[in-house]
Amino acid sequence: KWKLETLSWLKKPKQTFSKMENEIKVLSVNISEKKGTVKTPVEAIELTEKGVKGDAHSGTWHRQVSLLGNDSILKFQKAANRKINYGEFAENITTEGLTLYLTNPLDLLIIGDVVLEITQIGKECHGSSCAIFKEVGNCVMPKEGIFARVLKNGVIRAGNSIQYLKKTFKVHVITLSDRASRGEYEDRSGPRIVELTYEYFRKINYLIEIEHTIIPDDPEALRFLLERAEDEMVDVVFTTGGTGIGPRDFTPDVVKDLLDKEIPGVMEAIRIKYGTEKPNALLSRGV
């Protein structure tokens, strides 16, 4: 009943995990009881829903676990002209085999039973309150360290292997048009949304899977696709068409019924921006 076109455009990332590549592993696990101090290597760390048990940075926030690659440490060690010990940059986990600062938020690191979700790349430098900054006058953590939150608890030890999984965003573009679904009219807005979305995710170095579906102005068909998108954990859904005031313009009504929270300011800004030049844009009921 509905024309379905699936676009499998997957951009090759800067790096992905593969058994054929260099092994990614944990070199050291480290703990400190006070913030701003170096961490001390330990035999193992226990990861809970609050981060590293017994560490000063644990808590119900997004920077529960800090990680730094040995490549970053070696670069700084050469500049500082002295040996840098694991944990001196206050990282909980020292790694090897992955350029951490080239990862993205929402990527996953799987270490044994532990699953970490990357939440932040780099941070603001603590300056004089940081132990190594006071000694050397510089620090690598603000630019090349990364932070993560714990999705699955467990224990990590030096020598553990790390599996790196890039986040793949799932996007579904839905065009609503009686004529386009019958082949009487060329759908131009749907493909343009696909193009712009692909360009955006390529620019920020994320993998993306885009599905584009053309359906008639049928509220049940739209509801079916939106509920399916929720079941399949689609990250972003764009609908185009059916936002006017005609008798078969029902898209906003179906969408509103499925929202948890509406953010009205976004569409208000869009209508104001385009309504100044094209007043008919003010008649759009898009949500």
In words, what does this structure look like?
There is one protein chain. With 287 residues, the chain is α+β, with helices and mostly antiparallel strands. The protein has 8 helices and 15 strands. The protein has helices at residues 70-80, 131-136, 141-144, 178-181, 189-203, 219-231, 251-258, 264-275; strands at residues 3-7, 25-31, 40-42, 44-48, 51-52, 65-69, 93-96, 108-111, 114-121, 146-152, 154-157, 163-165, 168-176, 207-215, 236-240. It is elongated.
Give a quick summary of the entry.
With 287 residues, the chain is an alpha+beta fold. Helix content is 25%, strand content 28%. The relative contact order is 0.15.
Keywords:
287 residues; alpha+beta; 25% helix; 28% strand
Largest sheet: 8 strands, mixed
What sequence of helices (H) and strands (E) makes up the elements? Answer: EEEEEEHEEEHHEEEEHHEHEHH
Q: What characteristic shape results from the CA principal axes?
A: elongated
Terminal residue distance: 27 Å
Beta-strand percent range: 25-35%
Protein topology:
Elements: E1 3-7, E2 25-31, E3 40-42, E4 44-48, E5 51-52, E6 65-69, H1 70-80, E7 93-96, E8 108-111, E9 114-121, H2 131-136, H3 141-144, E10 146-152, E11 154-157, E12 163-165, E13 168-176, H4 178-181, H5 189-203, E14 207-215, H6 219-231, E15 236-240, H7 251-258, H8 264-275
Parallel strand pairs: 6-7, 13-14, 13-15
Antiparallel strand pairs: 1-14, 2-3, 2-7, 4-5, 4-11, 6-10, 8-9, 8-12, 9-10
Helix pairs in contact: 6-7
